[in-house]
User: What shape does this take?
Amino acid sequence: MALFGNASTVDPGKATQDFARLLGQGEQVQAAYQLVRDVIMFTDRRLILVDKQGITGKKVEYHSVPYRSITHFAVETAGTFDLDAELKIWISGTQMPITKTFTKGVDIYEVQAILTQYVAR
Assistant: This one.
């Protein structure tokens, strides 16, 4: 499952408010990123991918990935000519990683630290 585009940071409080119906009781959004129309959220329990579909974006798929299902991940930092950073996440039972591209304004090391905190449990 590959998701392409450039992501930018979203305030976790705003993401919590915007997606409150998706969150379990007491679940907290730790970080969130906007990807064109889609959103990726790291909560204290899982990774949530919000995929707006179609021309209007009214149809939405919410993909929930428990951290325990993440087998490994990789980050690629921005370079001199390639200004975007990438995050790849492998989910158990799948061969292809989920791929996210982040603009240089996003701290990819922060994203990696969040995953490390929850995947290593």
